[in-house]
Design brief:
- This protein is α+β, with helices and mostly antiparallel strands.
- It folds into 2 domains: about 60 residues, no CATH class; about 100 residues, no CATH class.
- Helix content is about 45%, strand content about 20%.
- The protein has a 4-stranded antiparallel beta sheet with strand order 2-1-3-4.
- β1 and β2 form a beta hairpin.
- The radius of gyration is 25 Å and the shape is extended.
- Keywords: Membrane, Transmembrane, Transmembrane helix.
Amino acid sequence: MSTQDTEVAEPDLQEKLESSTGGRIAISVLIVVLLGTAAIVNMPESITKNALAPVAGRVANVVGLDQGWAVYAPAPRRVSNYLEARVLDRDGTTTVLPAPITAGLSEYWDYRWQRYADTVLNGPDNKPRWAPYARWVADGERARGRHPVVVTLVNISAESQPPGSLAPRTPWAERPFFSIGVGS
């Protein structure tokens, strides 16, 4: 029998944690913290939530538990919004650039673009984000060899109708809400 046959594989980190008392305690504490965080960020407005939210909110943001459930109840948002940038070039052409939104499996790791566009359009403190986003779009166009002069941000929206309505939503409407000169 060779020494290779008698060697035991080194336990991995998971096995080490699960086999030791300290590791099981650490796992249990982590589970309690995550469950507590989820409970705090989803509880209704209260003195307790306001007191715990600053810390719980940071933890929730780091681990991805910062999802709001208001989309489901009690009054889900009825308006669908899409962000679009229209870039006027020095030669008079206009390029239309929707916010980067992907489909399929990439939605799971690219969802941040949808959240960012939603924040630009709907967030309570959204106005300070308009100019930096427009400049970022212009910089992208410059990198493609274009010569942007003006970037206009447009909100494309439609209101969802209640179940049973003849049409699922109102017609899509476009509303330019911000323009900035970005001359090259």
